[in-house]
Automatic annotation (TrEMBL):
The keyword Signal is assigned to this record: yes
Keywords attached to this entry: Signal
Keyword Membrane (UniProt): no
Protein name according to UniProt: Uncharacterized protein
Annotated InterPro entries: DUF2358, NTF2-like_dom_sf
Range of residues in the leader sequence: 1-20
Top-rank taxon: Eukaryota
Chain segments annotated as coiled-coil in the UniProt record: none
Length: 392
């Protein structure tokens, strides 16, 4: 049966060898040994709990891909002359597989660190043999550059340590992230145990993911990114309070999953829904912000802050915007204070003079980290916070 190029791509997209990734976490490396108890690593997906249908699907697709894109002979991704000679060397070489070789995407591993009969297990498939691992990963690696944006493919090593339990192993936690050209975004985290023998070679590889297998597979569908963003924003819009911790976590997920930035969509009125410092100010000043709005049109911006308490009133500021890639620079020129429900500014010249004294142009850079048709998030470097607003 003739298989079209498009159909082949979809087969490869469903195949999740080492489906696990994301970004921007600090690397913690420990060369010390740890005795029981074994550190607890939360995992939602592992081979013994995965449904038989998912296992059958992945196993079948793996065989199909290998038959369609055969790899002749062994392809050693790292030219290592000899196996490791110590635990610290093994730690270092595994670390480089993540940080240098990006192996979660490429399959490039330091083959000298593994035994020929190493057993490989992830939540969807298990098999024995280093050559089988190389066959599976190298087949997929041949098509990955054509269906993904290579600059987005990241393997982030969060932690790595040596553990001496009943069996000695190197324990890693990691994240993977990548964008596909047909619209989906893959973002998965997990942990891996590299069991090694007395010769410091890995004899067993055991990988777990922090999300269910079906969720990981659904991420590969063309509409997965838009569904994720829609669901997360729906959850975010229900929350209240400028400093809501859950709001901050959801915002970080959105940024990490798909940092959309499109300045063509920035015109309009935006109401702040998250900004930790605003919540703190409410408590310190004993006021309640009715709204904090940004009104943007072209290169013009106006800020309006309506509050209750101390007689109430509205603070305003207006000025110019200048965009440079993902940075936004704001220069405010006019300031005003309207006490109570007054339509006339209070002591306009005084307010203008005082505001100008406290306006520092060096603090006017606001990197935008997420922007779509209904949500905008930017950093306020002076306070180290993110401010998120919703289009009204």
């Amino acid at each position: 049966m003739r298989i079209t190029h498009k159909y082949l791509i979809y087969i490869l997209l469903i195949l999740p060898h080492t489906l696990s990734l994301t970004l921007n976490q600090p690397l913690l490396v420990s060369f010390s040994s740890t005795r029981s108890p074994t550190p607890h690593i939360p995992a939602v997906s592992e081979y013994v709990t995965t449904s038989s249908s998912s296992k059958t699907l992945v196993s079948t697709l793996t065989n199909v891909v290998n038959s369609l894109i055969p790899v002749q002979g062994r392809v050693d991704s790292v030219d290592s002359s000899a196996p490791p000679t110590s635990t610290s060397e093994l730690l270092q070489r595994i670390s480089e597989d993540y940080t240098t070789s990006n192996y979660l995407w490429t399959g490039d591993i330091d083959t000298a660190c593994f035994t020929e009969d190493c057993k490989f297990t992830d939540p969807t498939i298990t098999f024995t043999g280093l050559d089988t691992f190389l066959q599976n990963t190298n087949s997929l690696a041949k098509i990955i550059p054509y269906i993904t944006y290579s600059s987005t493919l990241k393997s982030t090593l969060n932690t790595i340590k040596n553990v001496n339990d009943d069996k000695s192993y190197i324990l890693t936690t990691w994240k993977m992230y990548g964008k596909f050209k047909y619209g989906s975004i893959l973002s998965v985290s997990g942990s891996t145990k590299f069991y090694y023998n007395p010769k410091f070679q890995i004899s067993e590889y055991e990988e777990k993911w922090d999300i269910p297998v079906d969720v990981a597979l659904r991420q590969l569908l063309p509409w997965s990114a838009s569904e994720f963003q829609r669901d997360k924003k729906k959850e975010l819009f229900k929350l209240r309070g400028y400093g809501n911790v859950k709001s901050g976590l959801i915002i970080n997920e959105l940024i990490e999953f798909s940092p959309i930035i499109n300045f063509d969509k920035i015109d309009g009125t935006w109401k702040v829904i998250h900004g930790p410092h605003f919540g703190i100010l409410e408590k310190i000043l004993n006021v309640k912000f009715e709204y904090i709005n940004y009104i943007i049109k072209g290169n013009k911006i106006e800020t309006r802050v309506k509050y209750k308490g101390w007689g109430g009133g509205e603070l305003t500021a207006s000025g110019n915007l200048k965009f440079n890639r993902d940075d936004c620079k704001i220069k405010f020129n006019d300031f005003g204070f309207y006490p109570g429900n007054s339509e006339e500014p209070f002591a306009e010249n005084v307010i203008q003079g005082i505001s100008e004294l406290f306006f520092f142009e060096d603090l006017s850079f606001f990197p935008i980290v997420y922007l779509d048709e209904e949500l905008c998030t930017f950093k306020f470097p002076a306070l180290g916070v993110k401010i998120t607003s919703k289009r009204t």
